[in-house]
């Protein structure tokens, strides 16, 4: 569009979760994925058309399992399932072809001196390295929304009560089980089964879940999306982490005792005998209740939280592959797997990005709510679409009144149809900031964000944010005052899907 841009990133690797292990893409209805987002998946299709892309597996040996459509969609010429390094290369190709300037490992100075504003407009921001970056427009495309917060834009963390926006699936949701991520059998939470005086096992909160529908400060669990392989030539055994303590996984041992055998249900296959392994079941990679302070935490505290998640998840994998507390059939099967040697090669084959499923959410010009994300309304000024289910992961693990353990917070409600996302959801209120767009920490309720937070949607909203920024500069107006017809015309010309 004829403008220059600087990308200032705290990360060394581009692409967030899409290049950080989430290769089994949560797409919903793929017809609503347009623009640059769709081009990303088309480029991956082209990559996997090359014989050289299939190093560890023949193309015709790949199962081609996707979410609702084939992974390799020859009709649409898109590839929705892919390896981390392949995704990262596509992002780097975009950078190279468009001659983008990227500053990496640059961390925003979040002190009061980090952002300079004149009136409601950001003039510049400073990073911890001392660099100062000026611009006419700013886009906060991070999972955390640090620039948004430092610029004085209001936001929310946690679950709103259902009464706030007239919703049903927000807030505390005890005894709601819409996926398989709950204790289906009665399992004792105590060190000595059935004896409260013995104390709680690790990974269980001492407090109750709260009242149904009430708001709280809790957020859905984080984890790492794991790229594993069962190819001995490319496999690294699961490492035994420092401070490994098998007793913290005793609850999983009791789940196995109950007969549960769903360990491999989310070992989703990606090319070359690898997986995108996500959480599944009552006790898995989702690390419940250990991220509540992450959104507003200092960088040091965030690093502690991320490290804690890594140690937990490494220990979990090591436990399942090696500990005799795990049934033989499960342990022997898990031990056939390991980390992929050719992925995340500068990080011990461990993903460089933790899955921040939810952090800050802006309180902007328009708040996307449950009814909007279920396709029951017509939102104003659409700039993109979503279609995935309201997908919130568990937020806590607690002891039921009858003395058994249970999880809470897992929601999976499907929309009636694909839905539009309002331009106002990426805009702060003009009085707070008039040259900032926020396409990731969007203005949304907790439960609506459960659907919006999918990676293809972030790409869609990112393109729309950049388009609005350019047009606002060209028209010499704040993004909040940009005529929607002007924005809509360019988005449609650039193949974005706004309605269906």
Secondary-structure map with pairings?
Blueprint: E1 6-8, H1 35-48, E2 72-73, E3 78-79, H2 84-97, E4 101-103, E5 115-118, E6 121-126, E7 132-134, E8 138-139, H3 146-150, E9 155-156, H4 162-165, E10 190-192, E11 195-200, E12 226-229, E13 235-236, H5 250-257, E14 267-270, E15 274-277, H6 299-322, H7 328-334, E16 338-340, E17 361-362, H8 370-373, E18 382-386, E19 390-392, E20 396-399, E21 405-408, E22 411-413, E23 419-422, E24 436-437, H9 446-452, H10 455-475, H11 484-493
Parallel strand pairs: 1-4, 8-24
Antiparallel strand pairs: 2-3, 5-6, 6-7, 9-17, 10-11, 12-15, 12-16, 13-16, 14-15, 18-23, 19-22, 20-21
Helix pairs in contact: 1-2, 1-10, 6-7, 10-11
């Amino acid at each position: 569009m004829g403008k220059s841009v600087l990308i200032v990133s705290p990360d060394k690797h581009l692409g967030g979760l899409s290049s950080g292990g989430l290769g089994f893409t949560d797409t919903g209805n793929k017809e609503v994925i347009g623009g640059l987002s769709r081009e990303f998946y088309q480029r991956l299709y082209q990559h996997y058309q090359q014989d050289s892309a299939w190093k560890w597996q023949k193309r015709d040996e790949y199962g081609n399992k996707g979410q609702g459509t084939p992974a390799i969609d020859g009709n649409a010429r898109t590839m929705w399932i892919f390896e981390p390094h392949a995704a990262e290369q596509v992002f780097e190709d975009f950078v190279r072809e468009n001659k983008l300037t990227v500053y990496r490992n640059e961390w925003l100075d979040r002190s009061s001196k980090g952002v300079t504003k004149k009136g409601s407009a950001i003039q510049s921001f400073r990073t911890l390295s001392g660099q100062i970056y000026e611009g006419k427009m700013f886009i906060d495309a991070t999972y955390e929304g640090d620039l948004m917060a430092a610029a004085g834009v209001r936001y929310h963390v946690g679950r709103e009560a259902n009464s706030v926006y007239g919703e049903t699936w927000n807030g505390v949701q005890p005894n709601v089980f819409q996926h398989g991520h709950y204790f289906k059998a009665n399992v004792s939470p105590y060190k000595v089964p059935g004896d409260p005086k013995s104390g709680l096992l690790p990974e269980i909160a001492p407090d109750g879940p709260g009242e149904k529908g009430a708001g709280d400060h809790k957020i859905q669990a984080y984890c790492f999306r794991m790229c594993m392989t069962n190819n001995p030539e490319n496999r690294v055994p699961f490492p035994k982490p420092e401070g490994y303590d098998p007793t913290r996984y005793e609850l999983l041992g009791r789940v196995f005792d109950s007969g549960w055998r769903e360990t491999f249900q989310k070992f989703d296959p990606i090319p070359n005998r690898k997986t995108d392994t996500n959480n599944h079941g009552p006790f898995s990679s989702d690390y419940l209740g250990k991220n509540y302070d992450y959104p507003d935490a200092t960088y040091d505290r965030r690093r502690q939280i991320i490290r804690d998640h890594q140690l937990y998840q490494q220990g979990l994998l090591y436990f399942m592959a090696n500990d005799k507390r795990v049934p033989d059939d499960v342990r022997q099967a898990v031990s056939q797997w390991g980390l992929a040697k050719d992925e995340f090669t500068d990080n011990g084959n461990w993903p460089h990005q933790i899955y921040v499923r939810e952090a800050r959410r802006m309180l902007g010009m328009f708040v996307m709510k449950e009814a909007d994300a279920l396709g029951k309304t017509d939102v104003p000024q659409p700039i993109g679409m979503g279609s995935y289910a309201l997908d919130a992961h568990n937020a806590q693990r607690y002891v039921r009144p009858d003395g058994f353990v249970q999880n809470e917070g897992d929601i999976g409600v499907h929309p009636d149809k694909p839905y539009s996302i309002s331009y106002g959801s990426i805009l702060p209120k003009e009085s707070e900031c008039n040259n900032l767009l926020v396409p990731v920490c969007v203005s949304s309720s907790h439960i609506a964000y459960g659907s919006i937070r999918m990676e293809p949607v972030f790409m869609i909203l990112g393109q729309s944010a950049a388009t609005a920024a350019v047009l606002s500069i060209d028209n010499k107006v704040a993004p909040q005052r940009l005529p929607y017809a002007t924005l809509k015309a360019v988005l449609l010309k650039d193949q974005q899907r706004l309605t269906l």
